[in-house]
Amino acid sequence: MTKTKTKTNTFSSVWDAITDTPEQAANLQARAELMRQIAAIIKAKDWKQADAATHCGVTQPRMNDLLRGRVSRFSLDALVNIATALGRRVHVELEVA
After folding, report:
1. Calpha distance 86→97 (Å, rounded)
2. The CATH number fitting domain 21-85, selected from 1.10.599.10, 1.20.120.1770, 1.10.260.40, 3.30.300.130
3. What rounded mean pLDDT belongs to the chain?
4. Is the Cβ–Cβ distance between 57 and 83 less than 8 Å?
5. Do 55 and 85 form a contact (C-beta atoms < 8 A)?
C-alpha cells in the first residue's frame, strides 16, 4: 500500500481561499463588511424585509439576498447606495497589508 502526501494550503483569510487574486479577496471582504453593517442597522431598527427594502430603495427579494449574506449578488456601488439611503456615509480606509 502506497501512502500519498496531501498538500495543505494555508490562507490568511477565507476570502483568499475562495478567490484567485488578492484584489478579488479585498473586494469580497469590503462587500461582506458593508453587508454586515447594513444588516445590523436594519436589525437595530427592527424592520421587516419589506420595510427595509422600501427604506433602501430596493425590492424585497433583493433585501432578502442582502440579509442572507449573498455577497456575490451585490457590487460595492450598490451597497454604498443602500447605505446612503439609510442615511449613512461610507468611509474607506486603507491599511498596510
Report:
1. 31
2. 1.10.260.40
3. 88
4. no
5. yes
